[in-house]
């Protein structure tokens, strides 16, 4: 634990200042709700719809802040990252808007829709094995060849500060929430969300959610020891990564609980939202919805915000079709 204690967690003041820097560059996304969804949830749910964000995901917030904070010297050879999709798109667009090159490592099992979008933003893609080790080894080679600055998908304070802006906007519109619930992959969104809520609404409980088959954050939270993800075999492709020491430290300090859901629960919740709310959500952001729908979180008489993290789906590979 001594290593974690030495980590500097971003403060609420830093998070607030980051939001002021990027708010004119990102969409202020809508907060939506549904009577039918509330009936099933047993309480009031408010969806912060980052599926309507630029690049179709919250990741644009963090990437915009991180790329914007680079010095001209750091940015001169462009930026590089590894990502299964949404962070890749976000870095590609943020780099394009700054006028610098983007070099993106994507796992070979990344959704086609996300690969195509990264290409459309003008980035150079290099494919890797789908394991964390494969991604990191390929990225190291790309950085050595290009001299690009690595923008980590979540183990980066500037990324976390940018991701926090979604929760700031949510709490500005709905200041009296009992819970904020979000999915956990690498933990960047959950870290930023929890820091923002601790400053704006300390009484709001922060709940993380995760696929049962990729439950590294749940295990880490329960044991107070960082566990790497053991399986990437989840339909929630955005949640296949492990926490970092930085995001784990943020979660330990600010998050109240983490719950897991099954693959079928994720798919069922996703389909319900598509059918009843008429919005496209990815499997990753169906995870917190599934936790509510399946009684993991008791919402009777409560009000909860859920960060809908993205809407980038391969429409030829919908999970309920096969």
TrEMBL record:
One Pfam short name: PALP
Domain of life: Bacteria
GO molecular function terms listed in the Swiss-Prot or TrEMBL record: ATP binding; carbon-sulfur lyase activity; D-serine ammonia-lyase activity; L-serine ammonia-lyase activity; magnesium ion binding; pyridoxal phosphate binding; serine racemase activity; threonine racemase activity
Domain Tryptophan synthase beta chain-like PALP, first and last residues per copy: 23-310
CDD domains: Thr-dehyd
UniProt-listed GO biological process terms: D-serine biosynthetic process
This protein's name: Pyridoxal-phosphate dependent enzyme
Family membership noted in the UniProt record: Belongs to the ACC deaminase/D-cysteine desulfhydrase family. Belongs to the serine/threonine dehydratase family.
Range of residues in the leader sequence: none
Required cofactor names: Ca(2+); pyridoxal 5'-phosphate; Mg(2+); Mn(2+)
Family matches, as InterPro entries: ACCD_DCysDesulf, Ser/Thr_deHydtase_PyrdxlP-BS, TrpB-like_PALP, TrpB-like_PALP_sf
Ranges in a coiled coil: none
Organism the protein comes from: Fodinibius halophilus
Keywords: Lyase, Magnesium, Pyridoxal phosphate
